[in-house]
UniProtKB/TrEMBL annotation:
Ranges of residues in domain G-protein coupled receptors family 1 profile: 39-294
Compartments where found: Cell membrane
Record-level Gene Ontology MF annotations: G protein-coupled receptor activity
Keyword Thylakoid: no
Organism: Phyllostomus discolor (pale spear-nosed bat)
Protein's recorded name: Putative P2Y purinoceptor 10
Gene name tied to this protein: LOC114505071
Pfam families, sorted: 7tm_1
Amino acid sequence: MRSNSTNSTRAKCTDLQMPFQYTLYATTYITIFIPGLLANTIALWVLWRFISKKNKAIIFMINLSVADLAHVLSLPLRIYYYINHHWPFQTPLCLLCFYLKYLNMYASICFLTCISLQRCFFLLKPFRARDWKRRYDVGISAAIWVTVGTACLPLPILRSTGLANNTEFCFADLRLQPISMASSIAMVTIAELGGFVLPVIIITYCTWKMRKSLQEIQAPPQNTKERKKALWMVLMCAVVFIVCFTPYHLNFPLFMMVKQDVFSNCSLIKSTLCFHIISLCLANLNCCLDPVVYYFMTSEFRDRFSEHGSVVFQSCVRCKDSVLEIHHRNEDLQAISLEFLDDSKTT
């Protein structure tokens, strides 16, 4: 019965090709590559080099920047493929780039959630925050990498069968290996609950709790200012999450239903596949939006960047003054030499 329904569905939907995806993917990756590379490289350099006080979610920000940078560095290969429609490289490299995309997505979700939760906890429980050790953040980050890295492994494995027959295809042209309905439901449940529902609940709760504390607690102006900064930071995490990851996870269950041939309506199938492409492009924007979280909303980042930037500027000014001073001295020496020659000729 299922094979007959599958055949009839495919017969109705004779054209499920999405030719616009090549142009859209290439344009998206070209647009975000340079800003994402520069923003995350500078952010990682400043966070690692100039911020010695590793509190206020700094460790999570560093890991978030590493996750974004790993995906950004794979974008030139994606750009090449979507422009040329040909993969001349080795098969493992294709699977690695495919893996990094989803690793970046779910690692970013976890670290954004940790940033929101820690800023909220430190602000509402300042005395307990004093006892918090930096190694706790390192341990949490390591656990996130292991968990997310393991959970994302099935994604490239399910696509690897498409490379066995033709090594010229990669990324969007790889077919999804047929899986059982039970496996599909388990995959959707884990991705939706762990990668979407739980982070949404945590970030929403942190935003509500911090906003409520600003309205109820009468604190000194300096503490109020710090609370507002933390609130804005959590709000930025929420904005990045909503813009980049919500569309994908709203569409993901429908996408898996399409792959399991649950739907028979051709327009619904085409709409789901089309929105899947758009949602993946939106998910890639997090590489450019994540630096906003710690660049514009973290006072330590701005202060240290301005501090060391001013030192460099002052050094340049001193170098310029030294060059000008040497130039003036050379002019004085030349003038003295000319006067000495004139005097010798006169005598």
